[in-house]
Amino acid sequence: MYEELIKAVEKSNSICIISHQNPDGDTCGSTLALYRALKLFGKSQVYIYCDVAESAFRDSLQVMEGIEFYNKVKIDNCDMAIACDCAEADRMGEYLRLFQKAKYRVNIDHHKSNCKYGNINIVEPGISATCEIIYKVVKAFDALKKCIDDKVAKLLYTGLVTDSGGFTFSSVSKQTHAIASELIEYDFSASDICEHFLKRVPLNTFKLRTRVFSKAKFFENGKIGLIYFSLEDFADTETNPEDTEGAINFIRDIDTVEIAIAITQRRQNNSYKISIRTSDRVDASRIAATFGGGGHKNAAGCAISGFYEDVKDKILKACVDEL
């Protein structure tokens, strides 16, 4: 697949890289690192797209200079479209049509639930981050022409750190640590990345978390923990859904909890985003699949429509059944 991708890249003039909606550090890091690597490889027509406001994409990652192209050059088709970290094709949102029209449709991902929707699929379920795969892709490019520099390394390291929970998740392997050790040989501060993404939070985000945590609910003798982010919570703390990132892990860290659930109200009527984190004994992706979602064994998500109490009851029943 790596050789096939390189051949397709060499034949492509215009390349679009598509991030998933509600971007996190891994999709941002892999997308931006691949963008820069392709530019260094000699491709001039490379574009990044994400179905989210530009400010949200920028806030998800410390984006470096030279990314002013983001979502601004609108094109109807391209030779190659690359989906980064998109477990399901529809997570590309409005840019799914652009992906489907491309001659080369590349799917690079690490989610267990990925159904290999591209005509070039580099999917490695179970590894810690899509940035692990992008590292190997970029190394393949680098063997032909210098494509890894300090910025590419920093972006890839950021994706590894954020999607591995600071190298604490069970998906972390010898390969993860080997790649991380090679990346930190470049000129950037690994400790600054860990500090920024794993520890520091804006004051408003802290207020949102404390407000929501104070209303946390527990079920099945503490084995299930649930938090709920409402539109009122966002309005009163001057935050937005992107500020919920990582909050669910505090519930998962409680010693009795085997399934942590975060329900986030969307602006659309009666629509809710569900995030699920589990212990090694419980498969989060199986719970999410009940509602058409997916992800990893210990981290998955889905969307459910309906009234809040009904949505809560549905997801709780699925969790109890899985327990």
Tell me about this structure.
The chain is 40% helix and 18% strand. With 323 residues, it is α/β, with parallel strands linked by helices. Strand 6 and strand 7 form a beta hairpin. Helix 5 runs antiparallel to helix 6 and helix 9 crosses helix 10. The longest helix is centred in the first third of the chain and has 17 residues.
Number of helices: 13
What general outline do the C-alpha atoms trace? globular
Structure summary, number of beta strands: 11
Q: What percentage of amino acids are in beta strands?
A: 15-25%
Q: Order of strands side by side in the largest beta sheet?
A: 6-7-8-9-11-10
The CA-CA distance between the termini, in Å, is 38 Å
The helix content is: 40-55%
Topology at a glance:
Layout: H1 2-11, E1 14-18, H2 25-41, E2 45-49, H3 54-59, E3 80-84, H4 96-101, E4 104-109, E5 120-123, H5 130-142, H6 150-163, H7 174-183, H8 190-199, H9 203-213, E6 217-219, E7 224-229, H10 231-237, H11 248-252, E8 259-265, E9 271-278, H12 284-289, E10 294-295, E11 299-305, H13 308-322
Parallel strand pairs: 1-2, 1-3, 3-4, 4-5, 7-8
Antiparallel strand pairs: 6-7, 8-9, 9-11, 10-11
Helix pairs in contact: 2-5, 2-6, 5-6, 6-8, 9-10
